[in-house]
């Protein structure tokens, strides 16, 4: 199958050779360019030379696990969206994944069509939003500014790297400054309507670490008890 050069390029990382081959074949048929890696070391090698649109990552691998790799990449400033594949399906495991910087989570066994759908959802929310959908200008958050048209956060240090989930969360809040968004509305904006309350809280906590002077005493992303979260822009 011949794919165009601008087709989304995915990195599939799984130590199961059979599943890796199946995913490579299916996702290629779905219109994605695929690079496959058997472990974290091979994934790091690929990431060092190619800019991927998304990574499909198995959590349980020999050596460095998927969660450890994700945490390490986020610490290094790698913001490639990550969809985690795992045999674990409990809500607490999803929360742990989000805490490590995962953008979405799919438990094995899964329907390949759902995998393709989730990949497309993540890619859509990672893309810059159309200007026509946005009415407001940049939003001030202390020493930082968030530009909804570019979905870009800037501060004295330059562009602040955001994961796809953090970017979508801040964009949803910035589109409705001073309005309270319920956790259900936030989950829809993140493209994960099935996410539980704790998973949303984890995403908010991660975002606060990047925009709040003191994340323990948030000024900009505030909690409204029993209702949700609200963005309070200001100097």
From TrEMBL:
Keyword line: DNA-binding, Phosphoprotein, Transcription, Transcription regulation, Two-component regulatory system
Every OmpR/PhoB-type domain range: 136-233
Coiled-coil region(s): none
InterPro entries named among the record's database cross-references: OmpR/PhoB-type_DNA-bd, Sig_transdc_resp-reg_receiver, WalR-like
Domain Response regulatory: residue ranges: 9-123
SMART domains: REC, Trans_reg_C
Residues of the DNA-binding region: 136-233
Positions of post-translational 4-aspartylphosphate modification: 58
Record keyword Thylakoid present: no
PANTHER family: DNA-BINDING DUAL TRANSCRIPTIONAL REGULATOR OMPR (PTHR48111:SF4), REGULATOR OF RPOS (PTHR48111)
Name of this protein: Response regulator
Organism of origin: Falsiroseomonas oleicola
């Amino acid at each position: 199958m011949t794919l165009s050069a601008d087709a989304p390029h995915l990195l599939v990382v799984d130590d199961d050779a059979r599943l890796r081959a199946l995913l490579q074949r299916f996702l290629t048929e779905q219109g994605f360019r695929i690079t496959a890696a058997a472990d974290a070391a091979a994934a790091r090698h690929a990431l060092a030379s190619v800019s991927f649109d998304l990574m499909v990552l198995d959590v349980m691998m020999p050596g460095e696990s998927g969660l450890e790799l994700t945490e390490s990449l986020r610490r290094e400033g790698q913001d490639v969206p990550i969809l985690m594949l795992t045999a674990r399906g409990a809500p607490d495991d999803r929360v742990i994944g989000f805490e490590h910087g995962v953008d979405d989570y799919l438990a094995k066994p899964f329907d390949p069509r759902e995998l393709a759908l989730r990949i497309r959802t993540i890619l859509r929310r990672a893309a810059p939003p159309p200007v026509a959908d946005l009415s407001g200008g940049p939003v001030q958050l202390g020493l930082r500014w968030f530009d909804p048209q570019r979905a870009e956060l800037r501060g004295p240090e330059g562009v602040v790297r955001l994961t796809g989930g953090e970017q979508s969360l801040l964009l949803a809040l910035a589109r409705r400054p001073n309005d309270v968004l319920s956790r259900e509305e936030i989950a829809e904006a993140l493209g994960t309507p099935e996410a539980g309350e704790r998973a949303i809280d984890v995403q908010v906590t991660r975002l606060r670490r990047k925009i709040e002077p003191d994340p323990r005493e948030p000024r900009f992303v505030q909690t409204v008890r029993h209702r949700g979260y609200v963005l309070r822009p200001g100097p």
